[in-house]
Design brief:
- This protein is α+β, with helices and mostly antiparallel strands.
- Helix content is 26%, strand content 25%.
- The strands form twelve sheets. A ten-stranded antiparallel sheet has the order 1-2-9-10-11-12-19-16-15-14, with helices on one face.
- Helix 10 packs antiparallel against helix 11 (515-534) and helix 11 runs parallel beside helix 13.
- The chain starts with 5 loop residues before the first strand and ends with a strand.
- The structure holds beta-D-glucopyranose and 1-deoxynojirimycin.
């Protein structure tokens, strides 16, 4: 059996790490709304409020050596031994170590020489602060005298200038110290109206706020001079590098235990309310927050509220089957990851710096389907934010900044799949909530006041953006790129200083068309038609349907390569993803989307395409993106051919788009294949944690493909559309519980050996308990549907009265 670094504790909804030397830092996320933190299993990571770039609270060093240096550190000096509860940074050998990552909290426990130190990290609901509750216990029969140092390093707010503008930064740092609270107020004097603070709920015996004084210039986090000597410097940062460290002398009697509450908080003051007196910041709001969190009992009550919040979120959809791995994925970790991707989009992880990308247009629309059942009101807000960055012609900003909610000029628009994702996201929202009022909301273009049109009109122009941008084969022009933003068919870059994402050295006269967008257009275009019909807008539905029918014809005529769907036509109108190509003969995206859309299902095209995917793209760890992998740079394809074979968009296993093929398999009723593919990429089924490397409890964006040096190695964990797509796939297409405008549709597509399962689903105010019975060993096809004991024709369970509980039996 391969080495394991931890295990699941499903009853507690935790992943328990028992060895601090995981093959990569295994992280978790704190915070639900504005105040957020990333925390590794050794207490590394950082915090920010609202925006990881512009409101960074604590500093982090990326890509450092060793990995994951800096974080929320507690140093315990017991005699001559110095240790940390999370093993790092001193790496003193512990007698016991355990890290429990739970739903928006992490608890880390270390034991050494008869002392137990357990720290619970979380952000209380509706609070701009992170709590670190440290419990110290003396398990010996002698008195223990300990010296305790806390440590946080402040970031100078803008995380990118923090890393580069030292000629200024080294002279701007400012702090205030008031009792046990250390305030960080760099730049508060001028244009900032925010400060941060770090406190402990008991009097301190010393402190440090200047990094060099605390560490010593030539020491690392593993050997701070102040700690080694057991003497704080009581330093005051003035310029240089401000930090916050408390010093406490603690005496514990035999068996005695003590709780200490540390709080890392953030405050924004009104412009005319910034100061208490000249040069002294107004601390009222910090005091208020601290008084809510100044005892262990108050902190425990807040923690209980956070756990109840998660109880509520996770009881909306749950499954009970014979497979505990399926259950824990659906009931806990997949839903949790969806919520995290909603909060962070692609901004801050151990693979994303928090500086580069804001919120993606397509990313955020896809993320919606992963959490809309849990917090529909925030999905509503998100939809309006996203749609407000659309242009009047239906194109959209590719990204926007969470703090300003404005489109990001640096990247601009021109990704021609983006508009269709708005239809995808909005229809997902409407099916879940039935809140059609959102369609009447006035939504601006590019956030310009006065330009508002209803959200419904935004959907229409999204649809039309595709038909207004068709290429020579009647297929959608790709623009900068489609979902695969590394297939840059108009880029033609020979200059390493150009960005593949934003450079278009050719576009004028381009013939580059995308079969992926074609499939998406048919799939989500039908959603648009269905919505129009539901609203009684039949003329619009007919108009749209006509274009969809035409697209199907174009795909069948020009998008079929004999055994699979082509991927694209390039700038010159040459085939991409065809037998005629030397490399990159077959791609996952177009075959996923066209089979999802059932294009050519009757004529056998879907069967053929899916069989080809199986034959050419499937591998031990999942379906690779393309095959054969590119082994040289193709200037006409761009970034995709820049990656080594087997990585990322060049034949990596993109866990994000494996679900498209899985859904395609359900379209042809092959539940066995669908579930086999799903298990290959689902973290709960990982066999070798050392090989997989990244967290075994969340999906990663990609896993090294069969052409890589180490196939099976995961990368880019956490923030990826993979979370939402797998959620959508397992719940709506495999377990087959689909929200629709008129009720819940029950149409599972499962392995024949899955004999039964029960789903509890809260939907539009009622609770549905759905028992699926598969004694016949079928893969798909509900033979009998009983709703509260009475037989219903078809697969639709009509909407039940609010507050009621409905019992459903579906027999396959
Ligand atoms: C990555 C993509 C990503 C894109 C945009 C590329 O380098 O490979 O996965 O979507 O950058 O940031
Ligand atoms: C990551 C991006 O966030 C996403 O939008 C894109 O579709 C994939 N990479 C594939 O390139």
């Amino acid at each position: 059996m391969a080495k394991e670094y931890g295990h699941y504790d499903d009853a507690a909804r935790e992943y328990v790490i028992t060895d601090p030397c995981t093959p990569w830092p295994w992280i978790n996320y704190l915070g639900t709304e504005d105040f957020f933190g990333l925390i590794s299993n050794t207490a590394g990571g950082y915090s920010f409020c609202k925006d990881a770039k512009f409101r960074r609270i604590t500093r982090y060093r990326y890509n450092g050596v060793p990995m994951d240096a800096g974080g929320r550190y507690f140093y315990i000096k017991d005699g001559e031994t110095v240790w940390n509860p999370g093993w790092k940074p001193c790496k003193t050998k512990l007698d016991f170590y355990e890290c429990r990552h739970g739903m928006n909290y992490t608890s880390i426990e270390g034991r050494k020489d008869g002392v137990t130190a357990k720290v619970l990290f979380f952000v209380p609901l509706k609070t701009w602060a992170e709590v670190q509750k440290l419990t110290l216990t003396n398990t010996t029969d002698k008195v223990k005298k300990l010296k305790l140092f806390s440590f946080q390093e402040w970031c100078l707010w803008n995380a990118s200038t923090d890393m580069e503008n030292f000629q200024r930064n080294f002279s701007t740092g400012e702090v205030e110290i008031e009792g046990s609270v250390i305030y960080h107020k760099t730049e508060y004097k001028e244009r900032r109206n925010h400060y941060a603070y770090y406190s402990v709920n008991v009097p301190v015996q010393g402190f440090d706020t200047d990094r060099e004084s605390f560490l010593g210039l030539y020491n690392g986090f593993d050997a701070p001079q102040a700690v080694l000597e057991g003497k704080p410097r009581n330093s005051v940062a003035h310029g240089w590098s401000p930090i916050a460290s408390h010093y406490l002398e603690i005496e514990l009697g035999p068996g005695e235990s003590r709780d200490l509450v540390f709080v890392l908080g953030y405050v924004e003051n009104a412009q005319d309310d910034k100061w208490e007196s000249k040069g002294v910041i107004n601390k009222r709001m910090a005091h208020e927050t601290l008084s809510r969190l100044d005892t262990a009992a108050k902190v425990d009550a807040e923690f209980k509220r956070l756990c109840e919040y998660w109880d509520n979120l996770l009881q909306i959809f749950s499954v009970k089957s014979a497979d505990e791995r399926l259950d824990r994925t659906v009931n806990i970790w997949n839903q949790y990851q969806c919520m995290i991707t909603f909060c962070f989009s692609r901004s801050a992880s151990f693979f994303e710096s928090g500086i580069g990308r804001g919120m993606g247009f397509r990313d955020s629309n896809q993320d919606l389907i992963g959490f809309v059942h849990q917090i529909p009101e925030r999905a509503r807000e998100r939809i309006i934010d996203i749609a407000s960055t659309q242009f009047a012609d239906g194109g959209c900003y590719h990204q926007y900044q969470p703090l300003t909610k404005r489109g990001n000029d640096g990247i601009g628009g021109g990704f021609n799949d983006d508009p269709m994702w708005l239809i995808f996201g909005v229809c997902g929202y409407l099916r879940e909530t039935g809140d059609f009022s959102i369609l009447d909301e006035p939504v601006p273009f590019d956030n310009v006041p006065g330009s508002e049109k209803s959200l419904f009109e935004h959907l229409t122009i999204s649809f039309d953006h595709v038909i207004n941008n068709l290429g020579p084969h009647g297929l959608p022009l790709i623009g900068r790129a489609d979902w695969n933003d590394c297939m840059n068919l108009n880029c033609f870059s020979n200059d390493p200083d150009e960005s593949f994402q934003t450079t278009e050295n050719k576009t004028e006269g381009s013939k580059a068309e995308s079969l992926m967008i074609a499939g998406l257009f048919v799939f989500s275009g039908r959603d648009y038609v269905e919505l129009c019909r539901h609203l009684g807008r039949n003329a619009e539905a007919d108009r749209a349907q006509k274009y969809i029918d035409e697209m199907v014809v174009s795909v069948e005529k020009y998008g079929w390569d004999g055994d699979w769907f082509l991927r694209a036509y390039d700038y010159f109108g040459r085939k991409v993803g065809s037998k005629e190509n030397e490399e990159g003969q077959i791609f996952i995206e177009s075959n996923g989307w066209c089979t999802m859309a059932g294009i050519g299902l009757k004529e056998g095209l879907c069967d053929k395409a899916l069989d080809s995917v199986k034959e050419r793209l499937d591998s031990e760890h999942g379906i690779v993106l393309n095959n054969p992998a590119f082994t040289r740079y193709y200037i006409e394809y761009g970034e995709i051919s820049s990656y080594p074979a087997g990585y990322k968009e060049n034949a990596g296993i993109f866990c994000h788009n494996n679900p498209w093929v899985i859904i395609g398999e359900t379209v042809r009723g092959n539940g066995k294949a669908a579930m086999e593919y799903w298990r290959k990429i689902c973290p709960a089924y990982i066999k070798d944690q050392t090989l997989h490397k990244v967290e075994p409890y969340v999906y990663s964006q990609m896993v090294a493909g069969k052409d890589a040096f180490r196939p099976g190695e995961g990368k880019n964990s956490w923030l990826t559309g993979t979370a939402a797509w797998n959620w959508y796939t397992i719940t709506q297409f495999i377990l087959g519980i689909k929200p629709t405008y008129n009720g819940l549709e029950i149409d599972p597509c499962i392995s024949p050996d899955m004999k039964e399962f029960t789903v509890t689903r809260k939907f539009r105010g009622a609770t549905y308990i759905i028992e699926v019975v598969n004694r016949s060993g079928a893969q798909r096809g509900v033979k009998e549907l009983l709703v509260d004991g009475s037989r219903v024709e078809g697969t639709l369970v009509p909407l039940a009265k609010e507050g009621s509980t409905v019992k459903i039996t579906a027999i396959l």
